[in-house]
Design goal:
The protein has 299 residues and is an alpha/beta fold. It is built from eleven helices and eight strands. It has an eight-stranded mixed sheet. The longest helix has 24 residues. The radius of gyration is 19 Å and the shape is globular. Bound molecules: adenosine monophosphate and manganese (II) ion (3 copies).
């Protein structure tokens, strides 16, 4: 069967290499069926799904932008997407290695605490829950807890022990917004503030925050997003225009892990114009050679 491409795109989705449920191949196949012109895979702190996605996208003649989503340390949720349309996304590995090291220090603490609390699991039980065997998050620990029969659902595992403020919760060391943005720029990527609406800031506070991030080298803002309410997209596009940032957009598709969010269309109304991808692809990225200082701060 032949599926016709429309003019829409989706630049924010997760594969099973982080907390999505679809393989990268499956993501591309779904995008093809939906007629999407361009997609980006943006796993949390992880680029293990990129090569598979890129190869499958060639088969299906879909434009593919390698991406990643980092969390940054801030008083509210701050996630920063990195897009690598032209450069080599592997250049972002030093940043990922820092985060992996942080996780490798945190996960044994969680597991030890769970054992003390009467939920005996091992690191091996957790590792088998992850497609890549690394990038282990609380999600994989929760799956192991469910697998062992200590909780009936992932939700319950978070509610009882793993969620913030619960007995087996340990704070995760993260990078500062400046380190994430500079790290992405240094690696030759385009840093974009993800889902600004989830930051839960007033319009004024959000504007000031984005302006500060722009000062660190932010190049785009995700103005089209599944959770945007009536006027959010319009306001965010105003910020993009005023601060000369690239407007981008995506669904944040997670497969069955967020079943109400559909690829390409979010909760039904999302439409990300293809010009967003054109702007990312055409963006002039930093000359990595000129910004050596940033990495010394990170690694
Ligand atoms: P971590 O990065 O190790 O703190 O784990 C974060 C991941 O755990 C997220 O990407 C979600 O997949 C999952 N997660 C966090 N909080 C919850 C929750 N309350 N219910 C279900 N899953 C959650
Ligand atoms: Mn997620
Ligand atoms: Mn996010
Ligand atoms: Mn996401």
């Amino acid at each position: 069967m032949f599926f016709r491409k429309n003019k829409y795109i989706d630049l924010h989705m997760h594969s099973c290499y982080s907390d999505g449920t679809d393989t990268p191949k499956r993501l591309v196949q779904k995008a093809y069926k939906k007629g999407l012109k361009t997609i980006a895979i943006t796993d949390h702190d992880c680029i293990s799904g990129i090569e598979e996605g890129r190869n499958e996208a060639i088969e299906y003649d879909i434009d593919f932008i390698p991406g990643v989503e980092f969390s940054a340390k801030y008083k509210k949720t701050m996630h920063i997407l990195g897009y690598f349309p032209n450069g080599d996304i592997e250049n972002v590995n030093p940043l990922i290695d820092v985060l992996r090291k942080n996780r490798e220090e945190r996960n044994p603490k969680i597991i030890k605490k769970l054992c003390e609390l009467g939920y005996p699991i091992t690191m091996d039980d957790v590792r088998v829950q992850s497609s890549s065997g690394d990038n282990i998050s609380r999600l994989h620990i929760a799956r192991a807890i469910v697998d062992k029969g200590y909780a009936v659902s992932i939700r319950e595992a978070f509610h009882r022990v793993l969620g913030e403020g619960k007995p087996a919760y340990f704070e995760k060391e993260t990078l500062s917004p400046q380190q994430v943005i500079c790290g992405i720029r240094h690696a030759g990527g385009v840093p974009v503030l993800a889902h600004p609406v989830l930051m839960d800031l007033s319009e004024n506070a959000l504007f000031n925050c984005v302006r500060e991030l722009k000062g660190y080298g932010l190049m785009g803002i995700e103005t089209y997003y599944s959770e945007n309410k009536a006027n959010d997209t319009k306001f965010l596009n105003t910020i993009a225009t005023e601060l000369d940032l690239i407007p981008t957009g995506g669904s944040d598709y997670h497969g069955r892990n967020k079943a109400n969010i559909k690829m390409g269309s979010g909760k039904g109304n999302l439409k990300v114009p293809s010009k967003c991808a054109d702007l990312i692809i055409g963006a002039e990225v930093y000359d990595a050679e000129k910004s050596i200082d940033y990495v010394t701060e990170i690694v």
